[in-house]
Automatic annotation (TrEMBL):
<dbReference type="GO" id="GO:0008168">
    <property type="term" value="F:methyltransferase activity"/>
</dbReference>
<dbReference type="Pfam" id="PF10294">
    <property type="entry name" value="Methyltransf_16"/>
</dbReference>
<keyword id="KW-0489">Methyltransferase</keyword>
<dbReference type="InterPro" id="IPR029063">
    <property type="entry name" value="SAM-dependent_MTases_sf"/>
</dbReference>
<protein>
    <submittedName>
        <fullName>Class I SAM-dependent methyltransferase</fullName>
    </submittedName>
</protein>
<dbReference type="GO" id="GO:0032259">
    <property type="term" value="P:methylation"/>
</dbReference>
<dbReference type="InterPro" id="IPR019410">
    <property type="entry name" value="Methyltransf_16"/>
</dbReference>
<keyword id="KW-0808">Transferase</keyword>
Length: 225
């Protein structure tokens, strides 16, 4: 690829093999048209979308068995979109989203590499309303609370895109920023169920990773008495 190097590796996700093209290392950078700069993506942040992270693998594994029947699903900050690829293979109604200028290209390439139908993709900035995106029954993300202000931005985004009965599922590597997000979602009638997870082979109990599942039922949403 022009301006940066990639490699392709095979991952085992949900018991099936996926070939994934990713950036060769964290030093890769190319922004000839200044698209990333205009979006506020620095050279240090530029390569983060294009790597296979433990939290992304954990989310993809969770989506291999999660109940998806009849659900419209949105992946936030998809990066390489591992979870969306797993969901697409299962025939899910999924939309992947990110705001990195190359996320869509890598997602489309990896879908084709695995002989999957194209994954619908939408550019989505968390602080910019996008009314055309619609609402979802399940909203997922991996390691999307990595900055302190992300809890506020994400909790403000959810009312625009979450159905009244909705589940929000996030894999978090234990960065310590989930507490304000949990409080904000509690104010929106979401109830948290948290499960500790091994993030990698070196992770020992009590595992630092967390699978955060926030659910808002019809009763909690005030639809039923």
């Amino acid at each position: 690829m022009p301006g940066y190097d990639t490699h392709t590796r095979t991952l085992r996700l949900g018991g099936l093999d996926y070939r994934i093209r990713s950036l060769a290392d964290l030093q890769q950078f190319a922004d000839p048209d200044n698209h990333a700069q205009l979006l506020g993506i620095s050279s240090a942040q530029w390569s983060l979308f294009g790597h296979i992270w433990p939290a992304g693998r954990l989310l993809a594994e969770a989506m291999a068995t999660h109940d998806i029947a009849g659900k419209r699903i949105l992946e936030l900050g998809c990066g390489l979109g591992l979870a969306s690829l797993v969901l697409r293979r299962r025939g899910a109604d999924v939309v992947a989203s990110d705001y990195h200028p190359l996320a869509e290209t890598f997602l489309a390439y990896n879908a084709a590499l695995n002989e999957l139908p194209a994954v619908p993709y939408r550019t989505l900035r968390w602080d910019t309303p996008n009314d055309s995106l619609g609402r979802f029954d399940l909203i997922i993300g991996s390691d999307i609370l990595y900055e302190r202000d992300h809890a506020e931005r994400l909790s403000a985004l959810l009312p625009r895109h979450a159905q009244r009965t909705c589940e929000v599922l996030i894999t978090d590597p234990g960065r310590g920023n989930s507490a304000p997000f949990t409080r904000a979602l509690a104010a929106q009638d979401f109830v948290l169920v948290e499960r500790r997870c091994r993030m990698d082979e070196g992770d020992t109990p009590p595992f630092r990773g967390r699978l955060l599942s926030y659910a808002r039922t019809e009763v909690a949403a005030g639809v039923m008495p």
